[in-house]
Write a structure and sequence with these properties.
Layout lengths: L1 H14 L2 E6 L4 H17 L4 H24 L6 H5 L3 E7 L2 E11 L3 H12 L3 H13 L9 H10 L5 E6 L4 E9 L1
Antiparallel strand pairs: 1-2, 2-3, 3-5, 4-5
Helix pairs in contact: 2-3, 3-7, 5-7, 6-7
Length: 181
């Protein structure tokens, strides 16, 4: 039974152009090792240096944001569920390489995140660069937040960031972010 399911998963990955996929709890060590594997894989496929760098940078930003968010929920009733919910995929489509990640988040945390992404989607490259420089000048918040990282992803992406939200229950949602490089 498991063999058939793995084959089905493999078909889904192939049908969606997914080259690399990770699902589970992220740690700093895993992010670093997976990041190196991503770089080596992309380089072995003879991708341009800028594509390799941008895919790697967006992958690192997405995984760090997920890890940091889970860390901010440590001690909460939903911590284990949130921490173990991450998935990150890297694939290739007609539009370019994409890095798509998802994780469970508390629904109360959605509004500021979605507002930021909606704002970034409305900006052109020059405006994103200006906003990034402005944010660098601001004092760092104690929460760490994902602001600079998401701005950097938007700057590296060749198309506007895309997201989706799937409500799980009254308190949790599954958030997905897709960046095309």
């Amino acid at each position: 039974m498991l063999g058939k399911r793995l084959y089905e998963v493999q078909d889904i990955l192939r049908d969606n152009g997914i080259l690399i996929s990770f699902s589970g709890k992220l740690s700093q060590g895993l992010i670093e090792e997976y990041g190196e594997a991503v770089k080596k894989y992309m380089e072995s496929e003879e991708r341009t240096t800028s594509v390799v760098f941008n895919v790697f940078a967006v992958f690192i930003e997405q995984t760090q944001n997920i890890k940091n968010y889970a860390g901010s929920k440590e001690g909460s009733q939903q911590y284990e569920r949130i921490a173990n919910s991450s998935i990150v995929t890297i694939g290739k489509s007609e539009a370019g390489h994409y890095i798509c990640s998802g994780n469970i988040i508390e629904t109360v945390d959605l509004e500021p995140l979605l507002s930021l992404i909606d704002r970034l989607v409305s900006l052109d490259k020059a405006e994103l660069k200006k906003l990034y420089k402005e944010k660098l000048q601001e004092p760092q918040s104690e929460s760490g937040g994902a602001g600079l990282g998401i701005i950097e992803m938007a700057r590296k992406a060749s198309k506007p960031l895309q997201y989706s939200v799937t409500r799980i229950d009254a308190t949790l949602s599954f958030f997905t972010l897709n960046a095309i490089v």
